[in-house]
Specification:
By secondary structure, the chain is of the alpha+beta class. The protein contains six helices and five strands. The chain has one domain: 2-Layer Sandwich (rbstp2171). The protein is globular and about 50 Å long. The protein starts with a helix and ends in a 27-residue tail after the last helix.
Amino acid sequence: MRLSRDEILKAEDRGTEEVEVPEWDGSVLVRGMSGSERDAFETSMMVRQGSELVPDMANFRPKVIARCVVDDDGKRLFDEYRDVEALGGKSAAAVERVYAVAARLSGLGGQDVEQMAADLKASPFAGSSSSSPSTSAEPSRNSSPAGPA
């Protein structure tokens, strides 16, 4: 059955899952990122080095966790900037357990992470000192209406 626009927009498609974290003596509720949240996350993985933007994979897992762990009302428990370092200092086993669920619910697989790093390096903004897109006559490979998977 083909879906209508309204059916797609009304669909409750962001799954949540409770994850037991024995190292933290309890559980956390993990929700997958929306498409916009994932785009913002991928953008946040870029840092400026001189006049270039380059991928920065430091604290990758804690950054995902900060965006995906929510309370019962769906509000994020962690600030994506302030709490990332502290989350990075937690048990690697606990971080990996929560990250694995957050990544799965957000559509981030191992190949996606590798592809994201490659895409970030190949971004039309990677060598630019401004946030303006290239003026090349060639269309951006990121301009597809389907976008990244």
